[in-house]
């Protein structure tokens, strides 16, 4: 700790000798030499230099002002092209993605924009396709495949049909057409699992009116990984099944389809997530809460390069087993890269090189990476498709600040493009500083009135918990505040990572 104080004092002395026209604040984006970073490019050149300026002014204006040109998927990961209806990955932001796609494809030259109604259908079609594997509430059909149970309204939709018992692209399009004009779907919140089961049982019962009983086992078979034993017992009791009959229903996890894959993913993920390391000058805490047993979120912390602390928080697009397996691959790749790299930007670029070919089309990984040097009292942070972190310290003149500048996510482009889009930030630290970062599941959690918890509440919660609480208490407290506000189960993975530069109590 004495070494840190000497370094801090010497740094302070050097700052007092700076010219008068230089800022003395410690919250700066440090200037880099021309060798370290190329001169900044214009927004157009940064996206596609060889095509810069090719889009006409009217089209650029529509990208900014026309609602038809601003439609995003529900998870905000893709922009819907109004000319083709294609979902374009937008990890670097909607405007940048739209410009790049339109410049390179040239579709605007020969096609007229689709109608607002058609664009909305295409948005829903993409969202349904992306969620079908992980959201069983979207897969409930009548026994004969002659109707679909809308999980947002609870209504049977007879216009949505299976084709020879299969869920085809035509079926998905029909589902999208229903949801695009369904008022409850506009709020984006499905009915609770228990209500879905009840309505599905009623639908099955109506179809089986001539039978003595309803085959509720088929209901639960379709609603696979998201219902637990306690909920299953209650559902069985409510529909006339005694405890002794439970073995006849596939409620036991060992009897449910897909459970073997899910259990394997859990085991792989548990091995991938290592314990937080100990450090004399930096205390850590993490709250890690998968939505459905496995998570598309991940974190990593390790001591590197002579006592520096590396912190990584990532989020794989999508949910379920497939996202969890990508998490395991990302963590394995990260550990491999750390054998040769310690610079934050170099780490991100090397991970992108290794992971890009293994991701599904349109899939990406948002990443926040920070390296804290407790001896120099500095931190370098990189946001690759991730929102900025929060740095707080009540002893500072400005006790709360964002840390990080937006850049492109991993998996969306090659090394050259990603290098241009990353904006590393170097921050001077003070003893007692607390760094807090989270995945978007926390920020985007909504209550029953569709109010988002959001960045402002997140930052307020961080500030409220930062004084006197341990990093683990801060992480747990922030998640508790979010859940208390929304009053509902959070429909996404939650991860909060906290690091405190331990204060010197003798100062």
How is the topology of this model organized?
Elements: H1 2-16, H2 43-47, H3 57-65, E1 78-80, E2 87-89, H4 94-105, H5 116-131, E3 148-149, E4 156-157, H6 169-179, H7 183-186, H8 193-207, H9 216-222, H10 229-238, H11 259-272, E5 282-289, E6 297-304, E7 308-316, H12 320-337, H13 344-355, E8 365-373, E9 378-384, E10 389-392, E11 400-403, H14 415-421, E12 425-428, E13 434-438, H15 440-443, H16 454-466, H17 471-486, E14 494-501
Antiparallel strand pairs: 1-2, 3-4, 5-14, 6-7, 7-8, 8-9, 9-12, 10-11, 10-13, 13-14
Helix pairs in contact: 5-6, 11-12, 12-13, 16-17
Structure commentary:
The chain is an alpha+beta fold and 507 residues long. It has 17 helices and 14 strands. The protein has a five-stranded antiparallel sheet with strand order 5-14-13-10-11. A hairpin with a 6-residue loop joins strand 3 and strand 4.
Q: Assign a percent range to the helix content.
A: 25-40%
Strand content: 5-15%
Helical run tally: 17
Could you tell me the number of beta strands?
A: 14
CATH topology of the largest domain: Phosphatase 2c, domain 1
User: What is the residue-mean pLDDT, rounded to a whole number?
Assistant: 77
Distance between the termini: 11 Å
Number of domains: 3
Largest sheet: 5 strands, antiparallel
Unreliable parts: 1-53, 210-258
Alpha-beta content class: alpha+beta
- What is the CATH domain class of the largest domain? Alpha Beta
């Amino acid at each position: 700790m004495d070494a840190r104080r000497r370094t801090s004092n010497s740094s302070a002395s050097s700052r007092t000798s700076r010219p008068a026209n230089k800022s003395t604040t410690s919250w700066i984006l440090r200037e880099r030499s021309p060798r370290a970073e190329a001169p900044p490019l214009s927004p157009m050149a940064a996206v596609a230099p060889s095509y810069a300026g090719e889009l006409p002014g009217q089209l650029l204006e529509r990208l900014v002002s026309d609602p038809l040109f601003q439609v995003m998927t529900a998870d905000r990961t893709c922009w819907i092209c109004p000319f083709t209806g294609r979902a374009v990955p937008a990890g670097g932001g909607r405007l940048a993605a739209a410009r790049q796609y339109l410049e390179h494809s040239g579709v605007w030259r020969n096609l007229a924009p689709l109608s607002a109604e058609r664009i909305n259908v295409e948005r829903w079609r993409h969202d349904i396709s992306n969620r079908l594997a992980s959201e069983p509430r979207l897969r409930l059909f009548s026994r004969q495949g002659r109707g679909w149970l809308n999980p947002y309204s609870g209504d049977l939709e007879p216009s949505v049909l299976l084709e020879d018992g299969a869920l085809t692209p035509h079926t998905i399009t029909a589902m999208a057409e229903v949801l695009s004009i369904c008022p409850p779907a506009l709020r984006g919140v499905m009915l609770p699992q228990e209500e879905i089961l009840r309505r599905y049982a009623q639908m099955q019962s109506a179809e089986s009116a001539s039978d003595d009983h309803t085959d509720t086992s088929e209901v639960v078979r379709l609603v696979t990984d998201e219902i637990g034993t306690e909920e299953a017992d209650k559902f069985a009791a409510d529909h006339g099944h005694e405890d002794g009959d439970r073995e006849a229903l596939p409620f036991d996890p060992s009897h449910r389809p897909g459970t073997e894959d899910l259990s394997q993913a859990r085991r792989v993920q548990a091995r991938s997530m290592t314990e937080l390391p100990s450090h004399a000058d930096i205390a850590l805490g993490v709250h890690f809460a998968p939505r459905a047993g496995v998570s598309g979120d991940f974190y990593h912390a390790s001591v590197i390069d002579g006592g520096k602390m590396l912190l990584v928080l990532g989020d794989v697009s999508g949910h379920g087993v497939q996202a969890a397996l990508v998490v395991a691959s990302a963590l394995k790749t990260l550990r491999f890269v750390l054998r040769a790299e310690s610079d934050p930007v170099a780490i991100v670029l090397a991970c992108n090189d290794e992971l890009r070919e293994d991701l599904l089309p349109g899939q990406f990984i948002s990443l926040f990476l920070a390296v804290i040097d407790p001896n120099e009292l500095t931190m370098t942070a990189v946001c690759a498709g991730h929102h900025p972190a929060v740095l707080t310290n009540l002893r500072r003149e400005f006790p709360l600040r964002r840390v990080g500048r937006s850049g492109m996510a991993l998996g969306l482009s090659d090394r050259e493009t990603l290098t241009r889009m990353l904006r590393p930030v170097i921050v001077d630290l003070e003893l007692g500083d607390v760094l807090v970062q989270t995945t978007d599941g926390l920020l985007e959690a909504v209550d029953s009135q569709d109010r988002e918890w959001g960045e402002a509440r997140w930052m307020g919660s961080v500030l409220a918990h930062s004084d006197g609480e341990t990093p683990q208490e801060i992480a747990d407290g922030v998640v508790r505040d979010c859940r208390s506000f929304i009053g509902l189960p959070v429909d996404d993975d939650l991860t909060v990572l906290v690091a405190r530069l331990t204060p010197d109590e003798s100062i």
